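Side project, low priority. Logging it here so it doesn't get lost.
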Amino acid sequence: MKIKYLYQLLLSHISILILAFVIIISLFSHFVKEFAYQNKVEELTSYAVQIANEFQAGQVDMRRLYPYQDILSTRKTQFIIFNEEQQPYFLPEGFHHPPREQLKKSEWNKLKKGQTVMIRADGRFDDEVSLVAQPIFVQNEFKGAVLLISPISGVEQMVNQVNLYMFYAVISTLVITILVSWLLSKFHVKRIQKLREATDKVASGDYDIHLENSYGDEIGVLASDFNIMAKKLKQSRDEIERLEKRRRQFIADVSHELKTPLTTINGLVEGLNSHTIPEDKKDKCFSLISEETKRMLRLVKENLDYEKIRSQQITLNKLDVPLIEVFEIVKEHLQQQAEEKQNKLMIQVEDHVIVHADYDRFIQILVNITKNSIQFTQNGDIWLRGMEGYKETIIEIEDTGIGIPKEDIEHIWERFYKADISRTNTAYGEYGLGLSIVRQLVEMHQGTVEIKSEEGKGTKFIIRLPLTAKQQ
């Protein structure tokens, strides 16, 4: 059976309130009743002591007992005085209880011992009564007892009156509670309903959701968390769409990059098979086929490298390597490419500067960055600098090329990202993977890489790699 949350809240509030009232009323009623009985017994005891004191001299004028009779009759209380034989010594006018049945043997024995007998409620008479028996001693000799009897109907009446007022209070409180609980429950259910509606929108793919919340309770915190979740889902969706767009562009670029060398290789192979290429041109054909094959291999290698690095399938073998040695190898490897674009590769590093890195991967990092600098620099300078920092080695690769727009800088580390192709025919990292691989490798070395660039003034890459504890 389904019960709406609104009714669940109402039922829980009312149930708790009723339970609380039952406990409070029961305790309060018991307390009032006990208090009234105790008060009545104490009152009777006080009068019993006063009457008993009238016999201390041994003889008493019976006329002195009539004022007590008048006072006690106004309180609907009767008293009787027994002698030591438990025979009535003084009976007030109109006393209607059989004298010999007033006190039990056990109670009479207590009186003989000088103990006061107090009973809050007793049913031995026609009506429920409270009774007090006070012993009378004259010169330390037991002479009888004073018995006071008062019906408890007045106490019961007072308790019933209190219970009636409590009942009215309960009814009034329940009415108010139901009204307030209904309003509060509607308020909270409405907030939950907004969350439900927002959840339905998110489930349908609409992440442009923001729940207004000015409350600091659990539902408010949930709404804040929901807003954060929706924001992150939107960011994830945008990122997926961005990556998918780049992936499609990447596939198109790769297809284009593969199509050109494959077309060239296919044409050259057909020409060689059909003997349409002269003998003096065959060596050039073989050289061209080799270059185009190497180009395709580089593309495949970059993709395999990225996947291995991303899935952490490679292991770094870190060594302490002289930085100038690495720079010389990079310069030798890329010198021809730099000269083709009239660029100068220059090294600035002291002989004692050491870098703690995996030799092959570190060269891969520098080659990828330097190749990008060459691609975007025409008739300029490219600097490879190295220096010692605080517990680290700092490597800078700076060019005087065309620079990178601000809107592209934050994205160039992303896979498949390519700068505005209208500016150049070549993407950052040739296939949009080079700089992404660079960042992954630097992070695997527990290092950092940052970029500073300004359009028309060049670009600087700054790599920081930590030294070993021994070097520090």
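Brief comment: Residues 420-432 have pLDDT under 50 and may be disordered.
Revisit when time allows.
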